[in-house]
Specification:
mainly alpha, single chain, globular, Hypothetical Protein Yqey, Chain: A, domain1
Length: 138
């Protein structure tokens, strides 16, 4: 079913709406992600992870519907798809108040910036400043 805005209701778009085809991180089309493919052992973890382009399309829809905060979160999520799971979890852990120093958050921000994840880098840099100001750093 296609919504008023041409999306398929998931925010990811549909061929009918002209937004594009939804794919897994592996590049497989969602139509290929079947129980039979699982039973045959044809699918891996990257077949179950979201593709950054899907997150970007969802961000565009959120922004178009006056939800800039959600759009920015989705764009950060798109950047994070480029990192291994253990690194993403380490970033989340570092963002918990009292876990690391503000300096460490700033170092992580610089590293993400160098690696081409500017939105995530900005979030960590802002967190470093706020945590230092509010006494939330380790």
């Amino acid at each position: 079913m296609t919504g008023r805005d041409g999306t398929d209701g998931t925010g990811a778009g549909s061929a009918v709406g002209g937004v594009g085809e939804v794919r897994a991180l592996s590049g497989r089309r969602t139509g290929e992600l079947t129980l039979e493919a699982v039973r045959r052992g044809e699918l891996g973890v990257s077949d179950l992870r979201i593709h950054p382009e899907t997150l970007e399309r969802q961000a565009d829809i959120a922004a178009a519907h006056a939800n800039p905060q959600l759009a920015e979160n989705l764009r950060r999520a798109a950047e994070l798809t480029r990192l291994p799971d253990d690194e993403v979890l380490a970033i989340y852990d570092a963002l918990r108040p009292g876990r690391v120093s503000s300096g460490r958050l700033a170092e992580l921000a610089a590293d993400l910036e160098e690696r081409g994840l500017p939105r995530c880098a900005t979030l960590l840099a802002e967190a470093a400043e706020v945590y230092a100001r509010r006494g939330l750093s380790a």
